[in-house]
Amino acid sequence: MDSVGVAADAGPGSAWRSKCPWGAPNTTSISCSFADVMSEQLAKELQLEEENAAFPEVVAVAEGPFITGENTDTSSDLMLAQMLQMEFDREYDAQLRREEKKINGDSKVSISFENYRKVHPYDSDSSEDEVDWQDTRHDPYRADKPTTTPRRGFIGKGKDITTKHDEVVCGRKNTARMENFAPEFQVGDGIGMDLKLSNQVFNALKQHAYSEERRSARLHEKKEHSTAEKAVDPKTRLLMYKMINSGMLETITGCISTGKESVVFHAYGGENATEDKVIPPECAIKVFKTTLNEFKNRDKYIKDDYRFKDRFGRLNPRKIIRMWAEKEMHNLTRMQNAGIPCPKVVLLKKHVLVMSFIGQDQVPAPKLKDVTLSSEDMKKAYHQILNMMQQLYKECNLVHADLSEYNMLWHDGKVWLIDVSQSVEPTHPHGLEFLFRDCRNVSQFFQKGGVAEALNERELFNAVSGLNITADNEVDFQEEIEALEKRNEDHVQNHRKKLSRFSSSGDPPIFDE
Ligand code: ADP
Ligand code: MG
Predict the structure, then answer these.
(1) Are 325 and 353 in contact (CB under 8 A)?
(2) Basic and acidic residues bias: where (predicted)?
(3) What is the side-by-side strand order in the sheet with 249-258?
(4) Of these residues, 123, 139, 402, 438, which one is catalytic?
(5) Sign of CA dihedral 245, 247, 249, 253
(6) For ligand 1, is residue 298 a contact (CB within 6 Å)?
(7) Which of 86, 148, 265, 417 gives a 20 to 30 Å CA spacing to 17?
(8) pLDDT tens figures, 431-484
(9) How close is the Cα of 444 to the center of ligand 1, in Å?
(10) Mean pLDDT comparison of 44-48, 303-307, 349-353, 409-413, highest-scoring range
(11) For residue range 58-117, what is the model confidence (pLDDT) as tens digits?
(12) pLDDT at 314
């Protein structure tokens, strides 16, 4: 019989094992008609194989009859019917997949006929060998880690849920998570569609949603609040006009500097000395940029500063920028009180800080990096700075945290410290690290500048802080610094508790003022 021949040629059912018994096998040259396949003998063999693979519990019941060859008809009919149904369902499912593919094309969002599929209990096993519709869309789970996927799929999903189902759940979850995107982000109306997004598609959408959100925030920012190059936004301009109108300032002559975080203007002081305030003849107006980009990197200076900690979490970014201005004001005042040469605070209004101008006739004093000093002056400047750093640390309880030749001005034969908005107390969680960085900048500048007696950064650190860190190399030194900072944190906590008893208004506690 042909059908027997087919079975024999192909080995004992080997060609059939992986393929469907009813499909036209490619492995044999003999074409196999449906009638041939229906032959009892072949059917018995195939049944056995299929049963072993797919219906182990049914096989246990039907085992006897197949082996003995008796009473095969009934069992065989049932089995054949089931197998025929299986094959029919598979073909049906394959057709659905083809339809899906046709409809979805290369579209990133796909629709699924999953709910219409005929799911068989063995499907979860056999589907691993098949090309699943999700695979064709580069599902990252399957493509990258095919062996771990099933195990992962079971975790926390219950024992009856297979990988395939897991993906479905995942897809639906991803669709639901689109709700979290910004309201402006159009995700379409997927209600009732049973939309499933693969992780890859969802992640791409999420990325896009976030970048859109940032972009629109930037645009908004630009339009309403930008402190663009050399210009200020209308609100800031109004603040500055008010200062002139009140007689506090005479005129604003122009811009001295546009930095990353601020724009600094020169102004002539007005006649109107209010209260006990004497307005200097020349003023510097530091406008803290209300664009947030640069301040994001500086969060750590302020959010760990216990003076501002209580308020930091509650404030919106615009108010946080005002806090920078406020911080500069407080720090300058402390320095002023300690007699450190620095600008004198005149007025703080929101994010605009008015202080005395270091320089003359609209010409700001040069930064140390831009001035060529005689070796004598260089030496003088070094000793002055060493002294100022000690004062800052001991008397003001501050670490500059951005000390370098860029933030030191040379005026009237001495060094003036500016730009202290980021300055922190030594007990700040990173205070000593900031101090070490300051010491490195200072020591390198003066060593390069030919000051023979300039201490190296470790010696300078000890000289300023009064700490006696003995490590003779930078790595160990920094490790010791970090260990000290950890210990300091306890101290800060205690200090905060103590202070909170005195400061019920939520204002930053002010020292030495
Ligand atoms: P930024 O945070 O942008 O560096 P700074 O406080 O360092 O802001 O100010 C930027 C520049 O503006 C300084 O380098 C200095 O040239 C000038 N400047 C700032 N404050 C004064 C001042 N009080 N007198 C004179 N010039 C100043
Ligand atoms: Mg600066």
Answers:
(1) yes
(2) 134-145
(3) 249-258, 262-269, 282-288, 352-356, 345-349
(4) 402
(5) positive
(6) no
(7) 148
(8) 999 999 999 999 999 999 999 999 999 999 999 999 999 998 999 999 999 999
(9) 22
(10) 409-413
(11) 434 333 333 333 444 455 676 677 777 777 887 888 888 888 888 888 887 777 777 777
(12) 57
Integer Cα distance of 203 and 216 in angstroms? 20
56: Cα separation from own chain's centroid: 51
Tell me, what DSSP letter sits at residue 246? T
Whole-prediction pTM value? 0.55
SS3 for 279?
Answer: coil
Ligand 1: does its nearest atom lie under 6 Å from the Cβ of 257? yes
What burial class does residue 61 get, using C-beta atoms within 10 Å of its C-beta: 0-12 exposed, 13-18 middle, 19+ buried? exposed
Ligand 1 atom at shortest distance from the alpha carbon of 420: 6
Low-confidence winner among 200-204, 210-214, 345-349, 408-412 (lowest mean pLDDT): 210-214
User: Looking at residue 63, what is its pLDDT?
Assistant: 38
Ranges of H-type helices in 178-250: 199-225, 234-245
Which is nearest to 178 in space by CA: 166, 167, 168, 188?
Answer: 188
Helices (H), 105-162: 123-126, 140-144, 149-154
Instruction: Using DSSP bridges, classify how beta strands 282-288 and 352-356 pair: parallel, antiparallel or unpaired.
Output: antiparallel
> Distance, CA 257 to ligand 2 centroid (Å)?
9
Work out the average pLDDT over 267-274: 81
Is the Cβ atom of 341 under 6 angstroms away from ligand 1?
no
Radius of gyration, alpha carbons of the chain = 39
Measured from the Cα of 260, ligand 1's closest atom is 3
- Retrieve residue 347's tokens: 């007025």
129 as an active site residue: the answer is no
What's the rounded Cα separation, in Å, for the pair 9 and 5? 6
Torsion angle (degrees, nearest 10) of CA 180, 184, 188, 191 = 40
Q: For ligand 1, what atom is nearest to the CA of residue 356?
A: 23
CA distances from 10 to 20, 28, 42, 83, 126 (A): 14, 7, 12, 20, 21
| Ligand 1 pocket mutation pick from 268, 286, 295 by most atoms within 8 angstroms of CB | 286
Ligand nearest 369 Cα, by number? 1
264 CA closest ligand 1 atom index: 12
Give the residue whose CA is nearest to atom 25 of ligand 1: 358
Q: Which residues pair with 266 in a beta bridge?
A: 254, 284
Rounded average pLDDT over 298-306: 62
